[in-house]
Amino acid sequence: MMRLGTTAGSAFDTLTDNAPIGFAFFDRDHRYTKVNAALAKINGISADAHVGRTIEELLPEYARTVGPIIDQVFTTGDAVAGFEMDGETPASQGAQRTWLLGFFPVPGEDGAVAQVGATVVEITDRKRAEAELRQSEERLRLATEHAEIGLWDVDEVNQQLHWPPIVKAMFGISADVPVSMRDYYEGLHPDDHDATAAAYAAAADPNRRSLYDVEYRTIGKEDGIVRWVAAKGRGVFDEAGRCLRVIGTAMDITERKRVEAELRELNQALEHRIAEALTGRKVLADVVDGTDIFVQVADVDYNWLAINRAASAEFARIFGVRKPRVGDNMLALLERQPEHQAAVRAVWSRALAGKEFVQTDEFGDPSLDRRYYEMRFRSLRDAEGRLIGAYQFVSDVTERLREQHRLRETEGALAQAQKMEAVGQLTGGIAHDFNNLLQGVVGSLDLIRRKSHDHGRVQRWAEAGLKAAQRGSRLTGQLLAFSRAQKIELKPVSVSDLVSAFREMVASTIGPHIKVSLDLKTDGIRVLGDEVQIEMAVLNLALNARDAMPEGGDLTISTRPVSLAGDRELADGEYVELAVRDTGMGMPPEVVARAFDPFFTTKGVGKGTGLGLSQVYGAMRQAGGTVRIDTRPGEGTTMHLLLRRTDDLAERAADERRVTATGLSARILVVDDDPDVRQFLVESLDELGFAVTQAEDGSAGLTELERSTPDLMILDFAMPGLNGAEVAKRAQASRPGMPIIFVTGFADSEALEEVVGGNIPVLRKPFQIDELERMLLAVLQDRTPAA
Q1: Which of 31, 199, 519, 619 could anchor a disulfide with 558, C-beta 3.0 to 4.6 Å?
Q2: CA distances, 709 to each of 666, 684, 706, 728 (Å)
Q3: Pairing relationship of beta strands 667-671 and 691-695 according to DSSP bridges
Q4: CA–CA separation, 43 vs 88, rounded Å?
Q5: Which residues of 648-685 are buried (b: 16+ CB within 10 A; e: fewer)?
């Protein structure tokens, strides 16, 4: 209770006399000691008529209600507020009115209650409005209850508080317990009390009329539990500006605040762990900051935790932004450059997900500078091993990559030079072999020229010269097989017989320090192949095996029949496997991958050209087979040659067809630009009994074709002017059905077939008269039935 001094009392009297609400003061006998003008007007009795008289005398119908309240205040010293009373007064002229009454103690000099003051406010109009409002509030209440939102209402005139059970629960009050504004203020957490009360006062202030929008804590009145509440509301004012009510909503946000608190604690713990991770690294940081290597450290949200001067300057230079600082977000700094932002995010996101890796990539604005950087990412973890970010060491490798590109170009040029050197070495070897062969041919022919009368010796010298020429033909066949352009004329070959006859040559070639063994299981079985190519393949593989066994070892050549189905290279069917196995050093996978590449070799300079395995592969593929390698370092190598198996009767049928052309007659036109070859053909055909005409080139050949109307044309493929293909097309156009035989030393079989197709037979140089005779016989016999 507040004791009023003289000055304060005078001020209080002035206040009450001029107040718009009614004031009355009572003694212990319920006598009026003072009333103001407003109350006198409400009661319809003058102020002086009240003084000295009891309420029982003036307003007996209200005395039964008001008297006990006055006694209560005198007894307890506590105010009683918010008391509503309905009724009539002389001033109301018979109309029912409603008033809001409040009672408060007025202490005397000794501090005891000397008087009881009362306030009277007429609320008839407000009560009518409230009744109407309650209906709309009920509808709103039903809606908000389902959304777990509580509606609250404060009657500012009568200082009454209306809370539904959901709002009471936010203050720890049971649903059936009445509440007042006192429960509201006392339920606020001490730390939130003043700010929340001030926000409510601002909402009820007619001059401010602020939005009541607060989040505060409550302490449960019954359970002591601390809860979080989010409340919003506005004041309702009458025309005079008086606040009648403050209404609004409240929501329990305790769970949301708990989650927010946990997140804050987590962030604080994370920041603490980061700080711990970086503590004590000052010296290292100084070193890092001074290096030319770009060093950056970022947390999981792409915020820089550390960045040295070099990295900061480079980032700004290539992206055209300000220099980044610790605390900046790298994605935000590139917000206006979405393409670069995406590139930075792509590489950092892997690191911030815990990946550790090295990557080289290109960054930078092309209008400024675009460079290649080698980035090494490592995870940043706290003392407990939890991922808290990543750090990056970056080097500008632009010049290094350019230098590597220049080096590759240089290496390519060097490789080309080495290939040319190898070709030169190969050419020298070929020239040596051809000189030996030509010596045999030239020597034999010279002896025949000198001793032509000695028929016995002439026959022997002719045979020697022919054998030398056959060896030359084999050598050119090997060269064409290396080029993978020669179409091999396949025939049945007994691999076992071939290898058996070839064993001594292999043994003498690779030397006595290597034991050569045979394991042949294909007696009587033949394959489609070329004897020269198979011999060349075995010899090349034997030489490679010798180089793989410098200290000696075992070389085994074996054959066995195999059946293939679903093979990745070869058609299903029967094959013969010819295997050459050594006990040498073996080959690593990277060598196996390039073993069949021309000019690839692991031998020293001058010890190999890298052509051997390439030749073997070319020969096998043209024969319809393949080559496979089975090897391991230190365990030796086995080369598997797979060749198609053929019917044994094929060779017998060929033998039966080897009859002479004697008895056949035909006029043959020979067209070849080489006079020696043309002369050989003319004389050979004459010897076989054919009528022959000749022409020195394509144009002359077409003229002779029209003049002599031959039955068959023998045509060189490669000639100046009109080549053989053009002559053949014109000849077939003018003489449909006339057989044509190509004779050629042309290497590119694919190009040859593309021009002549598969319908024109080809006789490859060099050939003997017997081969020419068989070809003529086959062509003329095929034509005869159709004639």
Answers
A1: 519
A2: 11, 20, 6, 14
A3: parallel
A4: 9
A5: eeeeeeeeeeeeebeebebebbbbbbeeebbebbbebb
Distance between CA atoms of residues 610 and 309, nearest Å: 54
Measured distance CA(442)–CA(472) in Å, rounded: 13
Q: Measured between alpha carbons, how far is 683 from 597 in angstroms, rounded to an integer? A: 45
pLDDT at 629 over 70: yes
By the 8 A CB rule, do 9 and 16 touch? Answer: no
Q: How many CA atoms lie within 13 A of 139 on its CB side?
A: 4
> What is the dihedral sign for C-alpha 570, 571, 572, 578?
negative
Residue-level pLDDT at 526: 92
Rounded to whole angstroms, the Cα distance separating 766 from 75 reads: 145
Q: How does pLDDT run across 77-113, given as a tens digit for each residue?
A: 999 988 888 887 777 667 788 889 999 999 988 889 9
- Tell me the β-bridge partners of 608: none
Pairing of strands 553-564, 514-520: parallel
Element (H, E) at 630: strand 626-631
For the chain, the average pLDDT equals 83
Distance CA(787)–CA(777), nearest Å, equals: 15
User: Is omega for the bond preceding 633 within 30 degrees of 0, making it cis?
Assistant: no
pLDDT at 283 over 70: no
Encoded tokens for 587: 């080959």
Cβ within 8 Å of residue 48, ≥6 positions away: none
The dihedral through the CA atoms of 615, 616, 619, 621 has a sign that is negative
Mean pLDDT of 536-544: 83
**Of all helices (H) and strands (E), which one includes residue 373?**
strand 371-381
Contact 577, 641 (CB under 8 A): yes
Q: What letter does residue 335 receive in the DSSP assignment? A: T
Query: Phi/psi of residue 609, each to 5°?
Result: -100, -10
DSSP-derived letter for residue 279 is T
CA distance 367 to 400: 22
**Residue 368: both structure tokens together:** 């400024």
> What angle do the packed helices 724-734 and 698-708 form, to 10 degrees?
20
Query: Strand, helix or coil at 307?
Result: strand
